[in-house]
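Archive entry. Fields below.
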Amino acid sequence: IHSKSKESLWALLLSISDAFSGWLLMLLVGLMAGAVAAAIDITTHWLTDMKDGVCLVGFWFNHEHCCSTSNQTTFLEWDRCPQWQSWAQLITGTSQGGFAYMVDYLMYMFWALLFAFLAVALVGAFGSHASGSGIPEIKTILSGFIFRGFLGKWTLVIKTVTMVLAVSSGLAVGKEGPLVHVACCCANVLCHHFTKFRQNEAKRREVLSAAAAVGVSVAFEAPIGGVLFSLEEVSYYFSLKTLCRSFFAALVAAYTLHSINPFGSGRHGPFDVNFHADWHPVELAPFILLGIFGGLWGALFIKANIAWCHTRKSTRLGRCPVTEVLLVMALTALLAFPNIYTRMSGEELLSKLFDDCSLFNSSLLCGYQQGNSAASRPAGEGLRTALWQLALALLFKMIITIITFGIKVPSGVFIPSMVVGAIAGRLLGVGMKQLAYHHHDWMLSRDWCSPRRDCITPALYAVVGAAACLGGVTRMTVSLVVIMFEVTGRREHIMPLLAATMTSKWVAGAFVRVGFDEALIRLKGYPFLEPKDEIEHRSLAKDVMRPRKSDPALAVLTQDGMTLGQVEALVKSTCFSGFPVVVSQQSKRLVGFVLRRDLLVAIDDARRRQKGVVSASQVLFRQHAPTQPPKAPPHLRLRDILDLSPFTISDRMPMGITVDIFRKLGLRQCLVTHNGRLLGIITKKDIVKHMAQIANRDPDSVFLN
Amino acid sequence: IHSKSKESLWALLLSISDAFSGWLLMLLVGLMAGAVAAAIDITTHWLTDMKDGVCLVGFWFNHEHCCSTSNQTTFLEWDRCPQWQSWAQLITGTSQGGFAYMVDYLMYMFWALLFAFLAVALVGAFGSHASGSGIPEIKTILSGFIFRGFLGKWTLVIKTVTMVLAVSSGLAVGKEGPLVHVACCCANVLCHHFTKFRQNEAKRREVLSAAAAVGVSVAFEAPIGGVLFSLEEVSYYFSLKTLCRSFFAALVAAYTLHSINPFGSGRHGPFDVNFHADWHPVELAPFILLGIFGGLWGALFIKANIAWCHTRKSTRLGRCPVTEVLLVMALTALLAFPNIYTRMSGEELLSKLFDDCSLFNSSLLCGYQQGNSAASRPAGEGLRTALWQLALALLFKMIITIITFGIKVPSGVFIPSMVVGAIAGRLLGVGMKQLAYHHHDWMLSRDWCSPRRDCITPALYAVVGAAACLGGVTRMTVSLVVIMFEVTGRREHIMPLLAATMTSKWVAGAFVRVGFDEALIRLKGYPFLEPKDEIEHRSLAKDVMRPRKSDPALAVLTQDGMTLGQVEALVKSTCFSGFPVVVSQQSKRLVGFVLRRDLLVAIDDARRRQKGVVSASQVLFRQHAPTQPPKAPPHLRLRDILDLSPFTISDRMPMGITVDIFRKLGLRQCLVTHNGRLLGIITKKDIVKHMAQIANRDPDSVFLN
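PREDICTED_STRUCTURE:
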């Protein structure tokens, strides 16, 4: 009895685990992605700080951690403690003077080049899938194609390691895109342990959609924004059933990351957003200006980067990825070190730009002249220096970002775009603040910006600028606004953010029609059917289907009357992945569709096992065998492998509707009939080529694998 | 030249307005819905307060407004000022004593009955579409059906007015569902002024989806939650193109409402949420307990209310809606007045329950004994009274909510459900706080709940409870969490909210499979195909299609060979809304599909205008006319009205996939073929009936209009 109750308990547990396996998988994806993201964050901080110096207490401490364990740190100068030694201090014994500066400079370049070299060498040696952001490939996978190994264990390991190295080296790359890829790898690896998801391709894609949400969620600690990102940008068919699961996984991942707490004490997200000011409707004008800037930057970036990628392909650079990475790295490090705003990492810079000036803030950016209140002080010497440095940093970041993307290391476009926008926004914000201070009697500003009131927050301009530039590059709107809303945590800021991102999307769209990810998909020639394109063209299904008029007739099988030898000859002489089965060659009435793979397996099986099957045997796809002369070899019955309900459309179907059907039902091919007669076939590849043709692009640029 | 440049400017403006007409429409929908919602809010506050008393300065002021203009009001007693007089004060001259109480009681009942009577009389006389919440009907409309007049101007006016009356009267109804209906009416009315949207049914539905988001956005000042609500709950095909537009409209509406500022000074939403406490993982246990309570309440409410609706239908009550409303109103008012928590409106009660106790809060709910800190004080006499009253209020609200829904006034289920949950949550929260106070040395609470720390926030329990009960009734998850997140504004609360709503959804789902809206759709028999149901059944298309085996053969036209007389006879003898056209009766090869309406118009037209067309004329659906004997009457060519690409599926198509195709492509009918021969037809109604049959419900309960 004991063993029986044990068994039934086991069975009960099994049935529950089956019912909840989807939720369990989501929980595991969230935990794993959160843990990996935490490990990435901690290691990145440590390696980034290693470029500056080392902790004497233990080399595995980063700067912040090293000094926070020290009790000799005062509140204001938390970043100076005797335990943390810059390389110059360690080697020359002093941190002052030209020689020490040179030592620091050289060590900075040495580590940067070392990290970059390791990253590109690892990518080159082990995981070519690890380069780039991975989002274009994930979009293509979710639209129904298969890249072998792209989401495997090996890619997960290599991408995680090289991403840490690339970000730490100081290259103008972010870790948001690669985090989405890493989260999808986690999900795919975990899927293999669940029978339900290993076998069902559609269910696995739902899990990958959720994983994309998880990736953004851990990147920005923004679970709602992550789900919307997956919905708006990444997923092809976002099933509403998975909405709740995605949200759950994104939330679990964000909490996991948060509880391992890599962001340090007191912070609530990757950026240290710290302001609580409101805004005035008049400020919508500068916000829209930032939107225009963001749109122009997005268009410039996409055009210039794609042109640069074409140059790379056609010159020697493309054949020596290691050399290219080292060249870009050397240039970046050489120019970045002298300017404090480019020397720090992108996330640190964003935190500084998103942080408002309180009275006790001693940073250069807050170098206002002393006044009796935080509000509206005139700019001081420090601020002027900071503005110059920021302007130079803006120029540097814009150029370096354009030439960095496309090199063979993991690279996300989010942080570099946001940095450009945040610098521009902060500059505009400081300018507006000074304008309001010096002209507070202007009509526009009189009511809401009297000298005693703190009326303009440069940090808000930085946030809006960051959103605008990211929007111009990626063309996200709602998801971007929600992500930034979750980062700042203030719903008052939704309106400026939406105004800027919408402007930026329109402006960028006027110059370059698609976003960066889709531009990359086109550049790489992936067979991706854009879910938002509408076809205005008047073509019909018969114009797109194969065979064309000049081609040989469509290769079909008949449901009876063909011998095994004839079938084998037909299969051998063509390379189609499936064959329609018709009643007879004359009537062309469609019976079903059989896949090449299934056909080959069945024939092979029959030849080996079924006695008497020879090349002269009749192949039957129909239910009832016709009577046949005595002594004929036995039939080969293949009705079991026949798909009896293939998808058909009429040859007069407008292509607009056809494309819609392919998208919504996720078809790979569709048979075309005319008055019940089989005429031809349309594959997804035909459709992608047709759409490229309509858009006046070269249809042969579409990748054929 | 002047007039020419003027003209070209005009043309430019026209083309821009056409390109941006979608955005313009969204802007107008947002502005209109926001303004209507603001008017509703202001009027509701005024009428609600009128049940208590009147403002002597001007009868059109509500209580808060009346006293805030007075300078004799102290900070603590803002609600007592000489300008505001209760009915007893006005009539008897005193507010003390039994007689004054009776006068107040009677006046309260008088106004409540008057408002309820006006509401039901208006609904009965002018707009039967105005009763209920309207969400079930909107879901059905968005799934592709048409209710004439349901979204018209007249419904808009009547629903707005009666909704104000119903909510003000004190009936247990909320205004969230009706606000969604009102927003959709606004959108529909505005659509008529844009050619693009007036003519295109699909585009109009996209606008209605956005309007549903707007409705929730103005109800809770939660634009993101509104968009997710529309996405998750209301919309059938949510096009991602409209995501951004919906968000824009929702945001504009929320800002419009906010700038007209009906919520009074300082508040940021409909409820006065005011606490900033964190929670401890141990508290997930009571939160999940609240989830279970919410699920049980949801299941009980749906079962009991549907049973009550059936009773109503079969008894005299159903024939006298006015009597029923007055009876329910009298019962509600009679029982509600003595208890302060039931006397106030649902929104006011929620504000009170969501508000945490500060040290200076003198309300009964915060009647703790005096201590040296706000944290962990023992319960005082005031709190005990409040708890009793709340417990009675909970019982009362549960019963009255169940019998209220289904009466013929506008009624939303959101606020009443939330009230039940918030009361239960607050009771549990207060209990937990006392438990932690008296047993602060328990192991579980020792670390995080020392006597000096403020560790448990009853207001958070109220919020979680409200979400759980609303989740149990409506089965919303992500959208609900996001709405509550926007209401409280603290992302720390996302996790408890998600835990509670998910638990509540599962628990409620174990008892009643569908949410309240879908239960109503079934009760009313609307032909709605639930977008989330999966078919596990093994039926095929041929089992569902018509004609069945015992039926007469399918009525088809042939592409030639039929005379006008034969066609007319066929059309007259059947009531189908369309006819397939085949090559010949023998081959049954499908050529196209022609709509009954188009056919009748074309025949009528030909008979009147085309010379020589008589009943013996051949009707031709093919391109080239066959040769025919001389002296025969001329042909009638009808190829223009033929849809040459009707949708077809194979008779072996599994119903699971067929349903998916119907849903995703929004089909109303689909032809069924076997080996290229036309066999039958499946309509959406057949599918809805089939699904009802599978779920063991009566297929004939499906509405046939």
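CURATOR_NOTE: The longest strand of chain A covers residues 677-683.
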